[in-house]
Structure formats: C-alpha cells, structure tokens
Backbone:
C-alpha cells in the first residue's frame, strides 16, 4: 500500500470510529427518551384510572 493509501485508510477508519461513537450515543439517548416517555404515559394512565375510580365511588 502506498503512503497516501495508508494515510487515507487511517483517516477513513478514524472518521468511521467517530461516526460509530456518535451513532451509539444517539442510540442510547433515544432509548433513554423512550423509557422516560413510557414512564410518563404509565403515570398518566394511573392518574386517569385513579380519577375514574374516584368518580365511580362518588356516585
């Protein structure tokens, strides 16, 4: 491999590693956001069920 080819390959590997790290971080952030959204939805469901139960008790 020529010197220029070697430098190019090294550079491409560095770019790929950076992109992979960036994508991995984004993937973790998306997973965390999904988890937070699911927790929020679960709390909303519990709240609406509690309100429904309370309104049935009053009747």
Residues:
């Amino acid at each position: 491999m020529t010197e220029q080819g070697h430098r190019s390959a090294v550079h491409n590997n560095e770019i790929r590693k950076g992109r992979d790290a960036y994508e991995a971080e984004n993937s973790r952030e998306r997973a965390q956001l999904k988890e937070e959204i699911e927790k929020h939805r679960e709390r909303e469901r519990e709240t609406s069920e509690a309100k429904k139960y309370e309104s049935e008790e009053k009747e």
Residues 3-58 form the longest helix (56 residues). The mean pLDDT is 90. The two ends are 84 Å apart (CA to CA).
